[in-house]
Amino acid sequence: METEILSFFEVLSRVVAAFVVLLLMTRIMGKKQVSQLTYFNYITGITIGAVAASITIDTSIDMVDAFVSLIGWSVLTILVSFINLKSPKARIILDGEPTIVIKDGKILEKALKGERLNMDDLSMLLREQSIFSMQEVNYAVLEPNGQLSVLKKVDSQSVSKKDITYVKPLYIPTEIIVDGKIVPHNLSKLSLNQSWLETQLQQFGVCLQDVFYAEIQSDGTLYIDKRQDNQSPPR
Q1: Which of these, 95, 100, 80, lies nearest to 29 by C-alpha position?
Q2: Do 158 and 174 touch, CB atoms closer than 8 A?
Q3: pTM of the full predicted structure?
Q4: Rounded distance, CA 21 to CA 223, Å?
Q5: Which tens digit of pLDDT belongs to each residue from 125-147?
Q6: Which segments of the chain are extended strands (E)?
Q7: Listed residue (94, 145, 129, 113) closest to 212, CA to CA
Q8: 48, 23 in Cβ contact below 8 A?
């Protein structure tokens, strides 16, 4: 019984100590660490949290060693943040830099490959910005933290209700060519077929082999992005 009580108070003391140290360290590391602005912040945040959890649960871990580890991780994180603040070159190496993935309404395929993104990933990131059609996008920038910043085309930006003339849409904007391949399931859902698609492409003066991405718009027109646009993916 006495051993159990001692064990209980040991765990309790570890919890309190870890909580206080963790609170102090997060205050010292600042809001950037808490908001996890970069992948590095995300990883170090998880690691520091895991170390703190180990301290409270595993009583076989020496308290001194555990808190040295916790404080060490925090100090190294602060040091890296200080280096980032003082050195732009170090900032690029440690945090990375934004990458333009759509420029002037054109998808930059090389940039997507460089960031290991596919069209499904890009579409998902756009939908998180309440953008359901690629045609609405003028510029899209993938930030170092993995979020997508989007500048819409002027005619796709918000307008007031009095400026809107309601027209019932024919379709929900839908991908019908992705990575140069037709998406037959989407065509079928829209009661369309490959012959219709090939006819539409001919009207644009392109063949299927030339198309990297295409989607049908709400009014029935096509948005087409050709393969290998002659634009280098600036960073």
Answers
A1: 80
A2: no
A3: 0.60
A4: 55
A5: 999 988 988 889 999 999 887 88
A6: 99-103, 106-107, 137-142, 148-152, 174-178, 181-182, 211-216, 222-226
A7: 113
A8: no
